Known about the structure:
181 residues, 13 strands, 2 helices, Jelly Rolls, 38% strand, 6% helix
Amino acid sequence: MKLLSSLPISGLKLIQPNIYSDVRGYFFESYNSETFLSLGIDDVFFQDNQSCSNKNVIRGLHFQVPPFEQAKLVRVIKGAVLDVAVDLRKKSTTYGQYFSVLLSAENHLQLYIPSGFAHGFAALEDDTFFAYKCSNVYHKDSERSILYNDKDLNINWNVANPIVTEKDLQAICFKDFISPF
C-alpha cells in the first residue's frame, strides 16, 4: 500500500493498495491498522457502511459535528464515483475548497478523509457499491449537510441530471454554515 502524490488539501490522503492478480482474479488488503499507521492514519474505525447507487445519484455533502465528528476511509467495490471532500476546518488555508477524485472498482483507490470535512459522491455507473469506514458511530442529532450544488463551492459533479434525496436538497448553503471544526 502506498500514498499517491500529495493532495492540494492537507489531511486528505489518496491510497493505492497493492493488487495481487492471477488466473483466479485479484486480491488486495483494503485495511490493515499497522500499514495505515505507517501512512500517518491513526484513526480507529468503529463502523463500516455500504451503499448501492444508480448512475447520476449524488449523496452528500454530509458530515457530523463534534463530539461525533467522523474521519472516513472510502472506496468503491463495484462501479465508479466522483468522490468529493470539502474542507470545513475554519483555520485551514483551504477552508471552503474541495478535492474530487475518481474512485472505481477498476482503480481500487481509497480516499482518507479526516474529520472536519464534508463528504459526498456522484455515482457514475448503475449499481455502484460504495464502502466506507467511520471513526465514530452514526449520531442522528450530530448529522449535518451542505447543499451539493452550492454556488459558492461550485463543485463540478459531472452529472447532467442528478438524483438527490429531498433531505439533501434541504441542506444549508455554505455561506450560512458556521464551522464547529
